[in-house]
Amino acid sequence: MTAFQKRNIAIQGDIKFTGIRLQAPAQYAAGPKAVKVALQHAFKEMGVVKSFEGLNQMNQKEGFDCPGCAWPDPDTPSKLGEYCENGAKALAEEATDKRVGVDFFSKYSVEDISRWSDYQIGKSGRLTQPMILLPDSVHYIPIAWEEAYQTIAKQLHELKDPDEAVFYTSGRSSNEAAFLYGLFIRAFGTNNMPDCSNMCHESSGVALKETLGIGKGSVLLDDFGKAEVVMVIGQNPGTNHPRMLSALQECKENGGTIISVNPLEEAGLIRFKNPQEIKGIIGTGVALTDIHLQVRINQDVALLKLMIKKLAMLDEVQGNVFDHEFIQTYTEGYTALLKDIEKYTEEELQVSCGVPMNDVEAAVQVLASRQKIIICWAMGLTQHKNGVENIKECVNLLLLKGSLGKPGSGTCPVRGHSNVQGDRTVGIMHHVSPVLNAAIEKTFGFSPPDKEGLDTVHSIQAMHKGKAKVFVGLGGNFVSAASDTQYTADALQKCELTVHISTKLNRTHLTAGKTSIILPTLGRSELDVKDGKPRFFTVENSMGKVHQSKGLLTPASQTLRSEPSIVGGIANAYFQKEHSIPWKSLSEDYVLIREKIAAVYNEFKDVETKSKGSGFYLPNTVRNLDFSQLPNGKAQFSCCSLPKYQMKEGEFILMTIRSHDQFNTTIYGLNDRYRGVYNERRIVFMNPKDMEKYGYEKLDVVNMMSRYDGVERKAAQFLILPYTIPEGNLASYFPETNVLVPITQYADQSNTPISKSIRVTIERVVS
Ligand SMILES: Nc1nc2c(c(=O)[nH]1)N[C@H]1C(S)=C(S)[C@@H](COP(=O)(O)OP(=O)(O)OC[C@H]3O[C@@H](n4cnc5c(=O)[nH]c(N)nc54)[C@H](O)[C@@H]3O)O[C@H]1N2
Ligand SMILES: Nc1nc2c(c(=O)[nH]1)N[C@H]1C(S)=C(S)[C@@H](COP(=O)(O)OP(=O)(O)OC[C@H]3O[C@@H](n4cnc5c(=O)[nH]c(N)nc54)[C@H](O)[C@@H]3O)O[C@H]1N2
Ligand SMILES: [Mo]
Q1: Is pTM beyond 0.85 here?
Q2: How far apart are CA 89 and CA 669, in angstroms?
Q3: Nearest atom of ligand 2 to the alpha carbon of 504
């Protein structure tokens, strides 16, 4: 065994400003500018020919699913192109012509690369062949595929207990890859399956399962055109789900009302110029938001309670504001909810949420007379200490209005990664499901472990304590995505082995274990050929529809292997020949994997044929108002408490959000066009009154500090920008601010880090 030399790895790269330029925030999203920017990114990374080749096939029935977000495709995709600006950027990032090969790694050590920004690291290009970093070295060197598998297998065999390994999944992997991965992990003997959902929509899953019986949303894309009201809470579709704007446009054109609830007035929610329509290119576009409720960070429960209280008063007079028949037939806990609401005065709720009473009244008037209501939400609700309760309060409102199980209404947790929902459906889950275990046992003849596994936060803590010694990542960028960057980096670096199945180089490959292996994989857009024939895999979108995805671009390198092939390769090396599961065959044959998925999950019956064309919907009990899984067979109202903050003088609540030019930790560029910020990411948005109160000028340089568990964490060097944001609230981008999120602070029940409500103070940097 070679001695380990601790490496000197920077967790964030050298901190420097990049030359900020400012403009007024945009008043609309998309339009011709979006098309221009999309093509600029695409041409720069992959040239003109490949750009059109790729973009023309994205989200088309015979093509590949966009590697960006999970928003569904319409049943008849537009021939003009069914992609958005940020989908084009996602493709450009994956299909770039740049390469990170052996020369790159011999030229730069992991210590060197770690000084670069995430933006620079990402722009280095695609990984081309398997590489290994040995304990006594700071340079990755090439390794053959088979040898890499054997090295991993050997290390896994050396563990005293299978629970000493953790297997992370990011949500871009196909159903086939995720199923095989989950099967291998269970056969290996652990449920340690942290995944990106743990940092994302876990709070939604927990809240929806408890209240409605299934952890997924209930609306279909068509419902947007039928809805009378769409509420968009804690979500920024203009940047993160741009194709959702077409659905909102349809709602508006059919006479619907849009209510947005957000501490920021996001451009994408103000007005939309649809680039697929002539009027969107040359006209003024469609106004989207009718009523904007500028809630203070993490005061959505207060706002929703206030609305419910006012609706209840109206209902007392009119008798028809709530859907009493629905409540009577399908729900439980109505009386307790009304009683709970009485505990609060309107004034205290209004003071907590900070929304002017007139605006609340306007929203209440709209909601009072409408029944078809959709509530959409994303990270603005899930990433708080009370993330689960935020969502339960939304469910309360829908139940009161009977807005479930009918066209134009329902829950819409807008998912992040393009297949994060599918990965969960086919078994990526740290909890134990006796039903799944029984089905696996029946199909494969082994008993999966019945001990709860570790989620993201607890995996990090286990690695930090030395209880977990091997980390395997199927995609993702664990160190930059997770909270408490220094702590997480230390945790990974304590591991004996880290394994990264990735398309592109990222910081997690640098904050590596003593030994570290990079296994480069095919991207979604790339041709995956077996026996001379291109093959497809399947994904599930945000609305529970499973469909095919088939890449067509020439792979970045001939050495790349597909994710199922890599996962099967590791499994085969671990179990060697004598095992009841045919790992080798599974690693080579997606049809066989799909057969096994269908054997384990009834709802995937005939997936081979049904996933063709526009695909098929998985069953959804809420759509049929089937609450038989729940206590007394009823949907559950919840009594949620108000989040209380005893803020000290000088303290702020910080939300860490995405700019327009990033996909999570992948930084496409340095602009946040809709918010009027160009060429800089180290910024913090602040209310002008707070700036005045504390004597700050625009572009003053500050540090932000959080203090939890007696420890001070610092994010150094941010430029202050005046912005329309509630007083006492701040906004800044992640991953730069993840150093501030303590590993110990996460949502009750779902363990999702509190990335949207971190208590911070700021200090001026004197130059
Ligand atoms: N282009 C692009 N697309 C993406 C991604 C990306 O990074 N780039 N990421 C993907 C992933 S994994 C995900 S999960 C989604 C994320 O999609 P979003 O959830 O839209 O992403 P965030 O930038 O985190 O934005 C959160 C929004 O919530 C608001 N917000 C913050 N705190 C609160 C609060 O307390 N209450 C309310 N009401 N609002 C609040 C913020 O102002 C912001 O508008 O997008 C997916 N799509
Ligand atoms: N402070 C703060 N932190 C957050 C959030 C926040 O809002 N604020 N959001 C959280 C959320 S919602 C999420 S989902 C997580 C995201 O966490 P992750 O999913 O771990 O992070 P990504 O940045 O999406 O991962 C990008 C990497 O995935 C790899 N990759 C890309 N495509 C593929 C592929 O097809 N196959 C494989 N194998 N690898 C691929 C590339 O190497 C790329 O560098 O971050 C969370 N962290
Ligand atoms: Mo996410």
Answers
A1: yes
A2: 9
A3: 42
